Queue: 3 jobs
Job 1
Amino acid sequence: MRTAGRAAAALAALAPAAVSAAPATGSGLDEAINNAFKPVADGVSWLVFHPVPIGFGASMPFVVLWLLIAALAFTLYFRFVNLRGFAQGFRLIRGDFSRRDDPGEVTHFQALATALSGTVGLGNIAGVAIAIGIGGPGATFWMIVAGLLGMSSKFAECTLGVKYRRINADGTVSGGPMYYLSRGIAEQRPSLAGLGKVLAVVFAICCIGGSLGAGNMFQSNQSFQLMLQVSGGADSWLAGKGWLFGVVMAILVAVVIIGGLKSIARVTGKLVPIMALLYFTCGLYIIVADIGNIGPAFRAIFDGAFTPEAGYGGFIGVLIQGFRRAAFSNEAGVGSAAIAHSASRTNEPASEGLVALWEPFIDTVVICTMTALVIVITGMYQVDGVGDGVQLTSMAYASVLSWFPYLLVVSVLLFAFSTMLAWSYYGEKAACYLFGESRPVALAYKLLFCVFVVIGASANLGVVMDFSDAMILVMSVPNLIGVYLLAPVVRREVEHYLARVRSGEIRNYRRAPAAA
């Protein structure tokens, strides 16, 4: 590990470049809106974060336990598809089994990139640091475990997304939990058709709320606060001009989303690999530069996972921190990604489920683990005064790469932008499900989304954004009820698909090109 003196010196030298998310000064209107939302926000938060006793005097937020139990159940029920389907998923992403005439709007890779753009972001940068700051290095181990289990949840919901999607007359696709909750449950369990429709409506309403808040306002708000801080804070020329920043961001978002999913997929297909590779490369450089400490870092992670200090409640406390961070990071079980994956060009529902396996793997197992390793190797989490969240991650990277805080600013802006693109599509599809699949409905939602970009950057709507963030997690309740009911369909789909791949019935076009 790096010495405390070296880390402290880096902290002292780089403190001005640290990044935080200080809220903007509120106005009377902000306060009025927040007060109006507070009773509703408190109710939703109570449901999502209500502590559930799990023994040994410990408790876990309801939503974390809900997502974790589903991930474990699906891993067992689908016979560890997260492991045995992993290689086939990579071949599909690479395009080995793709046909241009298959129904759908985007390639497997573009669907994956769009879904990843909605999950890879501040959670990978700040959330991991918070987990380590509270639970110690051992939280990293349980974060990885939860990420691996979450791959099974993501597989199931994305398989169902393709299975019950709707191909519209113009060739566009409408899919996701709204459709497999209503159409799938009605088909497989007719007696529960009414329940399926109710679950679909609840999911769609929460999806719209989450897209306008956490997927939009929160992103523009935090991006503006970051720009304000690095440009001089209260003395910056940007001070008081959140609306201007919001207008610029809204225009950039509009240029992409007006073109629909294909336009979004083209942009995210370029942005996501660049963002992930840049962040990963910086982390890998730090690890290689301090390769002698990689062994002690892994020992700290492993020992902390099973023999943590009793100060925080021991083993259970560390486990909860790891699972909580993974659940909030990759959104496995929430159902949002199924909306993007539903548009993939394929005739095989299980094929897109196998592609989706890579989403929690890249988000949690790769990117979150990279962040955790850098924090542990540099020893910055042990230095007093660093802070937590994005500031701790920034300082850990900056202790080796002095210019990293500035790169982090660019990364956060790109992460926020790509997240808004993905969630604009999720919200649009939810709105079209509720109000009808038509161009006027889609256009009205896109315009509304752009207006909320400006509102988010110029207002201090803390309670509103907390409420919308909770709504995203509430999406997991109707979604996972539906996935449980439709799990036999998923199992039949994947076993039939893998059997035909093994027999050669499903052609690998890279190995055996079709005859002219």
Job 2
Amino acid sequence: MSLPPAFFDELRSRLSLAQVVGRKVMWDNRKSNAAKGDLWAPCPFHQEKTASFHVDDRKGFYYCFGCHAKGDAISFVRETENVDFIEAVKILAGEVGLQVPEADPRAQQQADQRTRLTDVMEEAVKYFRLQLKTGAAADARDYLKRRGLSEDAQERWQIGFAPPGWQGLSDSLRGKGIAPDLLDAAGLTRKSDRGKEPYDVFRNRIMFPIRDPRGRCIAFGGRAMDPNDNAKYLNSPETALFDKSRTLYNHGPAREAAGKGAPLIVAEGYMDVIALSEHGFGAAVAPLGTAVTEHQLAHLWRMADEPVIALDGDTAGVRAARKVVSLALPMLQPGKSLRFVLLPDGQDPDDLLKAKGPAAMAKLLDEADPMVRVIWAEATENKSFDSPERKAALDHALSQRTAQIPDQGLRRHYDDALRQLKWELFRPARTPRRGGGFRRDVPATARTSTRNSMLATGVMPEDHLREAVILATFVITPGVLPDFLGELEQLSFSGPGHAALAHALLHIDPETDIRPQIEARLGPDALEALLSHTHVALTPAVRRPGDVEAARLCLAEELAKLNARRGHRREMQEAEEDIRDGLADEHVTARLAQSGATLQRAGSGTSSEDRTEFEVGANGARISRDERARFDDLLAQINFEKRPDGAN
């Protein structure tokens, strides 16, 4: 049975070798780096105790350094399931929802046709490259120079020029013996509706070859040199080679760069991708004239767990971000998400890189917003919530968004994050009373646009400080890592860069020098930013490197405080919901009291350097004033609801 190459291309694009192999092996988490698709396990084909079986999920191949077994997903299924080639293909196709084509005697003919078409496209690349050197392309060369593209860069990206004539390309390629019907099938010419000779699709345009993940030219994008042209950018029509909904510009090189740890960036156009790559951001791609599609999103998640969508910071950019969120929500799964960067002042990546350099772009990528912030901004920006109905409408809008998330655990985390943001928005303002103490003012209805913006809301800084102390203690005294691996895996990190550092700590060898290992994964600035914070540097466990006992005591204390604080926060959020739903009773009061007692026992608060922001609790533990105020307000509201006079 002969299957068309296009089928195998699609099957490979949908498959994850790590998932296929993961059903048969137990990964060695210390040796593996799942974020980079670099996975190790004991070999399923021979008996061994060490993890010598290597899976490269980015490239889709496995190799055992012990028995030298090697292959792809199809060969793995053949060997482990004891089936033939076609049966293995059917098993894998069924898992990814792909229909196996029926036996077709024309399959080989179609494969030969695709080969001929790719040959034609490569001839077109050569033609356009030559035309860029002619006098007719002077304005095009000047434009590329103004955009900062050197001749070396133009050569790397194989940029060319389509002259203004109607049949320049077709005349040249026909002169090389290429049949007119092949030019038409490749999308390079178009038949005249006036009975004349077919004419070139691309005329007077700068030409960008569009290649598939294997590097074969399958289409072109053309940038018009005439400002009055109806289409500033024009892509090839869809052909047997080119489906724009499944294609990403720069897919192959970006996949390779992302596999080496570069951030995967989704930009809006060819020039943005080229500018990013030329400035060191090699894992940059772009959709082709349309919004991101489901197929493209699946490709992105094969390359990286959290691609960054980089958009112009104008109204169109915000609208595009929200469309991507709508597409992604039903496809989300634990560990797979998106982050968003809205560039300032309506700039695109090319503008920003020219004005401020790669460091500015890297900073924006580091500060990219998670999807939950985009959802929050869409629901709240420039809106007032000065009535119960408007607040209820906000609840409804947010719940409709999160209801689209199929995974229950992930949906719960989204709901928790949005509840926290609602509390930040609506928490009562508190002003000093005469004679001391605080009084409760009217709850806020709508905070300023800054408060509602994606960059202004988030988790309380104290959580970030505790996370930093925990991570710094592991870095300073890595010998305690094996004793706290379970706690480290379960802890949710929200501080800037903390999740990436925790992931690195889980996948390094603590018995060797860990700093070079971390710097190799995250860069030299990751540890410097962590350890330079005053609160972290003054922690006894950090001041005494290698003191295992001090490190254990510090970690046990900080983990208890952090978990107690987050548990107390969840209880208060649930109590607020119970009050809003009219369910407040003695059980809610008891839960709050118990949670508060746990928090007090854990000793919530920070060190003496931060006393200005914390007050002393009944047992001597420092408690955040905002947390204590919120706690007192909730108890007061519950007691009010339970008044015997029935007042409401």
Job 3
Amino acid sequence: MSDLTPHRILDSLRALPADRLRGVRRGIEKESLRAQPDGSLARTPHPAALGSALTHPRITTDFSESQLELITGVHGSAQACLDELTQIHQFVYRSIGDERLWVASMPCCLPADEQIPIARYGSSNIGRAKSVYRTGLSHRYGRRMQTISGIHYNWSMPGVSTDGYFALIRNFRRHAFLLIYLFGASPAVCSSFVAGHPHGLQPLADNTLGLPHATSLRMGRLGYQSDAQAALAVSYNSLDSYAASLHDALIRPHPAYEDIGVRDADGEYRQLSTSLLQIENEFYGTIRPKRVIRPGERPLHALRERGVEYIEVRCMDLDPFVPVGIAESTARFLDVFLLHCLLADSPQDSPQETAALACNQERVAARGREPGLRLQRGRTEVSLVEWGAQLLRECAPIAAALDALHGGNGHRDALLAAQAGLENPAQLPSARVLAAMAASFGGAHVPFVRARCEAARQDLLARPWSTAQAAHFQALTQQSLQDRQAIEAADRTPFEDFRQQYLAPEQLQPTRTASAHGA
């Protein structure tokens, strides 16, 4: 990091028109398991009152039938985004009876792997494909890993080119350690999650495992990790280099997955394909370039055809101390942090740097609050606290500019809270989780999360809820059911033909050369 970085950020910030800053948009996707009051997984079907998981614009499922995904629209302020997320939660809680939304990223008490229900989306070809994809995930990685939940933060700013978004992504990957340190909230897990598997965790209490200085087990070796994907040398230096890496992984057969096969002896589908990645979404990472896709379109084709439209931050844990999983101050910090990633110089990445970043992520996830922890930066090592403090200093003028534009001190206060966490790790969510577990629950994870679930449930059910709000969500439910029926009625293609057509390599290629890779 150059000594000139703060000056360049200031120059870039001053050159940024106010209407572009005002045009920043964000949306949130929040995953949560449905759990029984006793802390076990709810294995009931997706609640009928929530409509069709295939077509509902705000409420769907992730890997499991028991795993809700709540999706906001696109908003011009963090407050508006969190307001909608809160309303979605209010409706869900009024629709799931005695079940709870598990407020922690690491899962509740899980049954045997094969008893975790895979999400179902109906009889249409696209619905069947979504379920077969998840069946493939279960064969490749096991079902337990897929029950981990988190927050995805989608972000865009007008006037950013595709190359600009990739520059942001490169810097984000360099500095994501700070987000994992500041907002990681999964230092412990129910022992059922690792039953029968090596894990390297320490016993903290009955049925509870963890690490004393961990910040986010979700973002460490227990989380969304894959030895097969680790061999992917994905470069974020351009759309072309990124797309080429993914294209190869999407069409190249992988021997271990060829052994699984596409169908079993009875003709039942085991996965969509035998390639290293079945579809683009299987590629794990802390951040993704994204583009809204058209019906039937492959995400990689959309990126190649029209460029990057927004980015998706994927490293945020659920905050068990906040009823909806993410605080408004956290969203404000993310806005500042992402602008820093965009405005700072962003050198090209290299295989050596990519390996160092993976090492940094693993260290911070497992040992982030360890006194004196050092991370790799270039050819040297630097203390996490020192590096983090430097980034926060560079973020200060960005926070000031956003506060001047929107009023108040919310962005400055978010930075001050982050600085306090650097100076006193006991204030961090991961430390607060362990402290609360030890103080009131004998160090046990599930009883602590159960208590937080009940507090969140009572908080959200006690908030005002109008007949107009109820009618709005009931209308979305009914429309989603009609839309699913229409999709199923329109299907004429046999599923195997549909699968082969969707996965055809030519579906990944652009039909024309995108002008400057889009804006």
